[in-house]
Each structure stands twice: as C-alpha cells, then as structure tokens.
Predict the 3D structure of the following.
Amino acid sequence: MEEYKVLQPFKYFNDHISVNVRPDGRKFDQQRSIKLNANSVNTADASSLIKCGKTSVVCGISLELATPKAEEPDNGFLVTNVELLPLCSSKFKPGPPSDYAQVVNNTVNDILKNSKCIDLKDLCIVSDKLAWVLYCDIACLEYDGSIIDACLATLMTSLKTLSLPHVIYDIETEEIKVDVNIRHPLKVTGLPVATSFVIYQSPDSNVALMDPTSFEEEMCGGNGANLVVCWNQGLLCGIHKFGGATLGTDGHKKLLNVAKERSKTIEEVINTCIANETSE
Amino acid sequence: MVEEDLKDFKLKPMKCELNFLNKSDGSAILAQGETVVLVSVNGPLDIKSTSQNMEKATLEVIFSSKGGKPTVSDRFKENVIRQTCETAIFGCLYPRTGITITIQELEDYGGLLPTTINCTCLALLNSGLAMRHVVAAVGCALDEAGNLIIDPTNDQIQTATATMYFVFDSREKNLVTGFSTGTFGEGVYDEALERCRAASDLVFNFYRDIVASYCNVIG
Amino acid sequence: MKVKVGDVVLPGDYCDEIASVGAKSKVLIGPGLKKEIDHVFVTKAGVLKKRNPSTFWVDSYQKRYIPCRGENAIGIVHQKAGDIYRVDIGGSCTASLSYLSFEGATKKNRPEVQIGDVIYAKILVASKDMEPELVCVDSHGKKGCLGVLSDGFVFKCSLNLIRKILSPSCPLLDSLKNEWPFELAAGMNGRIWIKANTLRETIAVGNAILGAEYLSDDEIKTMCNNIASILTGHIS
C-alpha cells in the first residue's frame, strides 16, 4: 500500500475519494483530533502548544516596552511571526522565510486584525510615551497541513492566557517601574477560528475536504489549503480562497456551515483548556 | 427594484491598452477608475532544471509596488495572483517551462488587487497562452449603514466596515479566488457574492470588447 | 458562453456548431481549441474561423512561438554538440538539427555550418515533452529552399504578421516584388530574413512588412506605391 502511494500518488488518492473516504480513514468533513496545552513554555509570557493530528505548532508571546508611533500615539503593537523551519517538513529549506511562510503569516495577521479581538489601545500605557509590544512567535514543529487553523488557534489561546504586568511611569523623570506581581489579563473580545479546506476536482464532482493533511494539500494543487473560512462569534471575519478547483453556490454555503460548526467546537476546546489551566 | 440593481452594477470606468510593451510576449495596461496597473507576461521560457515541473508550466509572479520596496503583503498578492492564474492557464500544455508574470503598480486609488487580476488576465489573453477560462475580479464594500457598494472608490474603502473581493471564472461563474477584510455576517457575504457574480458579466463583456477592437485591426 | 463561427471568442467559450458537425463527421480542430471530455472549448482570445466542411480554429494574436510539426522556421545556430547543432528558433528550448539532415551530407562530408549562422529549416518533430527537431532537406533528400541563409538581414515580428503576409490573399509581397528585386524567407516563428541589392532597399522591404501589420489590403497597396516612389527618388 505504501509503495502504491509513492508510485501512483494521484491514483491512490483518487481511489480513496471515489469510495468516499480519505487516505487516513476520515470522512470528508471530519477533523483530526486536537490536543491543546496552554503555558507550555515557561520562559515566555504566555504560550500554548497545539496538535491537530500530526501538525503541531507552538506559540510564545514575549512582552516588551516601546514608544508608540507618532501617527498612532494611543496604540501599542502586536507583531506576529510565523516560522516554518526545515525542522517541520522537508518541504522547507533553511534561510530567510519562504514565500509560503510569509503568506501564512500575512493571513494569520489579517484575520487577527479583521476580527478586532485585540484593541491596540489596551496595549498603550501612557499616550505617546509608553506602550506594550506583543511579540507573538509562532513556530511550526511538525507540518502536516492546515497550518493556518493551528497557528490561529494557538495564537488565540496564548493571547487569552496573557496577562500584562502593572507598569508605573513617571512622566517627569521618565522612570519606568514594572511590578510583575500585579498582573491584569489582556482584554480579548471574541475568538476567531479558522477552518481550512481543500477542494479536490474528481472526475464526477468536486469535493471539499476539511482539515486537510499535507498529502491532501499536495494532491489538490500544492500550495497549502484552497479555502480558509474564519468565523468569530457567529460573524465571518475572513474568507480566503486561493485558486484551485471551484465549488458551486450550494457547496460553498455548506462549507460555511461546516466551518461554523467547527468553530464552536474549537472555541469550546480553547475555553476548556484555559479553564483547566487557571484552575490548576 | 430593477432600476436600483442596474445602478448598483455600474463599475468604475475601465480603460485598457493591449500590447503596451514591445518586447514582452504579452502585456496590458489597465485603468479601473484611477487605479492603474501594468502587466507583462513572458513565456513559455526555458528555466533552470531545479524549478522545472514535469507535469505543467512553472508560474512565477513578480509584483513591484510603486515604492519599489518588497513587503510581506506583496508576497501575499503574488501568491493570490499565482494561484488564480494557475487555474486559468492550461499549464499542462507547456511542461518543463516557465511563465513569468511581472506586475508594476502605477497608481493605487483603491481596489488594487482586483485591477491587477483583471490586468493580468488581459495580458495573458494578449500573450496567446492557452487558457481554460478567463477570470474577472470584482470588489465590494460594506459601509457603516450596512449597504453594499459594488466596486467601491478609495474613500468608500477607507470608511467601510468590511471589503470583499471575488474572482470568478467565465465558464460556470464559480468562485476561483476570494479574500476579505473586516467582519460581516453570513447573509451579507452571500448577497455580496451574488451581486459581484452578476457584476462580473460587465468585466467579461469588457474583455470581449477589447479583444474585438484588436481583432478588427489585425484581422 | 455560447459563440458562433466568426465571433470574437474568449477562453472558456464553446461552440455548438462544432458539436453538431462532430456528430455527423470527423472534425479537425486547430490552434485555440481543445477537447475536454465531451466539449470543445476555446483556449485563446481571437476570432473563431471555419473552413468547410469541418475545420475549426481560432485566429489569435501571439508573439511567442510554440513549435509545430511541418512549419518552416528561421533559427540561429547556438552550439555544435556531437553530431547535432543546437538552433534557437524562439521557442521555450533550443531545437536540434543533425549534421546529416542537409542535402548530400554524409558522415565524412559534413555541411559547412558555423555558430551564429542563420538557418531556414523545417520542423520535423514537435512535441510539448521533447526538444523540437529540424531538417534542411525534404523527404526526397533535396534541400529546396531550406539551408543556411547567407548575408541578408533578420528581424522579428508577431506570428500574425507572418501568417498575414504569407496568406495568398495578401497583396503585400505581390506589390513589392514588382517594384524592385529582393529575396525573402519568412519563418513561422516570427522571424523574417530579407536580402536586397542595396541597404536602402533592404530597409524599405523591412519597413513595408512591419508597417503592414495593422493595414487593410488597399492601404497596403498604397503604402507599397509610396515606398517605391520614395525609393526611386520621385518624392523625398
């Protein structure tokens, strides 16, 4: 079986799809099992680790203080950085971030911005003088598809567990005092959840596969997922479709609902994880 | 109601010149409203063997912004355009070759990406590469009052709560590529999709007019 | 979208006439049309043409040459490799031309072809997966008009222009040949080689061809007359 997959990947894949099953035994709209763990990195101010099937992504947030930009004196900064290192898959080569890593980063960043779940004004301490910078480093440890879903979930979990230390800023002496014992949690409104799909053009009709693996992504055009739907508390906050096979209106609508259902599940997972973490 | 619909489907004036560049295999310059983009297509070309694909042509998209400084969002634009073109071009007819699409932004007064996609499509038509279908990109914005504006102006984009861009193919009018900013409800999304789908006919007709005017001359 | 013969077509269009003709007899589909499962779709932008009884094609604008079997092309010798020459014909990769595919060539008696020479050759093999192969002889082993083009002047133009000037209905070459003598070879790959007695005449032919791209038949005749009178010194 393994030889068949290597020698005739398209045929192997098509054989599975034609009998309504995916190579790993899942149904078309079935997701992989998710394991989520908050505060897994002690040195970071907030962190989390997610495993969706074989994809595992870790996110760490570190805090820094900086002067706000002159154009937006009341805003702090939130910087996301997605890294796809050679460690996670043989697809990625060492060196500067690949185009694909930049695209993933841009998509995650866009979703976060569009969902407006973090108000950058909350990160400001003293207008025009001092503000927090949230460096959100997202590193992929194992790459097996649906990277955007995993990145966003781990980023949101980390943000939800993040608490900012109390800062006293003396305007006259410009002295900064940070009291790490008094912390107040960061305000996060809403919880955007992204769901990836690939659309496979089979001879009779096009089918959509939820939460695709790396192999499935390759079979459906190659460059990551074809469709990413992002729900945030019953509202859409980003639909990205990148070429690939097309879907009719009905199929499209169905996917939106599938993604909506999944977003509720993921939301529950994240909330449970955070609740467990705080109770410990 | 009918009258109102027709008014909504008015797009910004489009002006186009094909074969704008002498030396490239295909080129087009397109102005949609005040946004202007120049695209040049070269190919099929010989490329180095590491990037050759046995099954289909390798597509390379280079986007240069007006400032000339490459940014992460340029990479995103390149990715969107490459994946859109990959579905449109019959890549399997040109295996082991490369097709280079070079895009130069000239003026950006809103709706840069749809204009770029439409211009790329015109340049591909001009280059004579075999294509499965043509694509048309249409944008729309949701203003604060909850109204949908098809093909918004720059000011409307700036004040909008959400913008959505859709790319349709010419065969079945299915969604090829889509991207959005801001948050919006499902109903709004469906309505925007349908309206843009209807408005895409205007873009397809525009393509036909342009090709017709050039065919008459070459005849 | 449904289209008819003679219409301006875009990729993705389909024509019912092709299907209805195809139901009765065999249909020949030319460039710009492609069969997908059960439909014939247009793949290029241009005008859908038909020649009775059942040949269809799309007349489209193109500059980049895709090698095609049986066409004559003008190439430049780039490299000698073993027993073949590598010739650039403007396609995505170079074409190969064997030492032996010249008139009277044998293993001992090699043709005199140098790097940089201009060659007028016929394409024998053209496939998307393989390097194109050229020959400088016909099936009887005669060279005909093929072979090395010495002296003269080569310039590039669009593929449509070549098809236009070679079409029997185009008056350009007929008008020009009456005015002054010159030799001309037109490659389907968008290259034209011309040789006339003087430099002035060579440039005049070149300009006449390039100028004819967007002109109608009558305008071409007028233009040829104008060029001829300028050349003979009647008008300066």
Notes: Strands of chain B lie at 14-18, 26-32, 35-45, 58-64, 98-107, 135-142, 148-150, 162-169, 175-182. Helices of chain B lie at 2-8, 72-88, 112-127, 154-159, 186-218.
